[in-house]
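Class, study these two lines:
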Amino acid sequence: MTGTTVGLSLAGLALTLAIAWANFRPWWKGNRDPKALVPFGSGFLLGALSTMCTGGLLGWLSGCAPRVTNAVGDKAVHGVTGASNAAALPRQSLGTLTPDGAVLVFVVAVGVVFAWRAAGKTERKRMSGGALVGCTLCVTVGVASLLNWLPALVNDGAAQLHAALNGSGAL
């Protein structure tokens, strides 16, 4: 990632929740079709998975997301309320990737990039918002604890796929 890891501040959390609300509100007010959540959900998944990357482009972006969100959130909170709140929330990591898990995250990233390129303007915004929300919320203790099953799912699933392909002679 970047040299030092940064947690999410309360102002950054406020901005992150505003972005999540802006994405969920139209769905809630609309017909609540689950397919309408796919753009935001795919971005969120990629953002969450990127917090497990120790380097590379995804690791770098997930390291930058809380910094940017904190800075913009602090300006927004100060601009709206006149008060500043940069109090940091405790930071936690989702976990780390195995080499097999890293390959699976790469495949997910490629799939999300292809979907983003094929998407319209509104879907692209939702995917970008989902990625930012995933990168920022998944460094908080609460959300990382709620998603503590995700690293094992990715790493174990990728290892099982690798073993199945090795056993079948496909590799």
Remarks:
- The helical segments are 10-29, 38-50, 56-81, 99-118, 121-137, 141-146, 150-167.
- The two ends are 31 Å apart (CA to CA).
- The chain has a mean pLDDT of 92.
- The longest helix spans residues 56-81.
